Amino acid sequence: MKKLVCCLAAFLYYYGAYAIQADTAKKTVERKPRQETTDPYRLDYKDVFDNMNYDQPLRPQVHYTPLTGQIADATGLVKYKGTYHLFYMSDEWSKQRRDNKNWGHATSNDCIFWTQEPPVTNSIIDNRPGSGSGIVDWNNSLKLRRGVEKTLVVFYTDYGRGVALAFSNDAGKTWIRHKANPVIPSHNDMRDPNVFWHKPDQSWRMVVYESNGIQFYKSNDLLKWDFLSRMDGFYECPDIIQMPVGGNEVNKKWVVINGNGAYYIGQFDGTKFTPETSMIPLGSLIFLYCLYNVCVTNLKSSQYPYKYPNCLIDFKRI
Fold first, then answer.
1. Which is catalytic among the residues 39, 44, 73, 110?
2. Is residue 177 a contact partner of residue 22, using CB atoms and an 8 Å limit?
3. Which DSSP helix (H) or strand (E) runs through 79?
4. pLDDT (0 to 100) of residue 53
5. Domain range spanning residue 240?
6. pTM for this entry
7. What is the CATH number of the domain that holds 316?
8. Active site residue 158
């Protein structure tokens, strides 16, 4: 009986938050049939139990790692009320991302000591979700604020439906899928939505990968997105940041970053990015992948991109 209670508690801890609070809509969703596969990298219960001790010879003790399983792209990095939220691609039950691919979640007050939180997505419901981004809805664009807490929002790739979002009204403790999902239906191998605030016209922008290129979208409410422009010649996980040249806040340039760290420097007018350089590789001796900036201050993003969370992540203010 005691074992049954423990198993039930563990199930609710990991899956209850989103299983109970899924925001369901009265509309038909066509789902791809789930393919049963044999995962040679799958962890058994003994592996999982042993991993939870954090005492393996090669286990990082400073860099964040989850209790068990595989960890990959840092995605949806947000700071809110002194708490850093680290979202990351993960599979708790495998050494690779296979049948239980998910968004993991961890929180910290100092970026050194981390608390692992329940996953934000579900491998089956969200069709083995892929990368995305996270924001704080400071201006209540979604109109979902309840009480004193601002709404936290994550955008992720639902490989069966398209770009989807989940939101939190309790500072990231629990997450609810929006009933309007997908906010952009899947097409042209769309994935990796990166959402940011565009201050000049007080609205939101999304840069997302589509068919060997990236596309820009605009929204006022985070739900209805209008196409703006496209750039060809990219390979997934795009990002865009504005940086001062030589520390000069008057002279700023925009940088569009590819998934492998290569980048363009140029101008972004809110609709179209105009490159002023050819694509600049990061360097043959440097391996970075899936770079993301960090949303740390009110309607602003950090100037500094970051790599996988297995490497030390520093959150910087501007």
1. 73
2. yes
3. strand 78-80
4. 81
5. 130-318
6. 0.80
7. 2.115.10.20
8. no
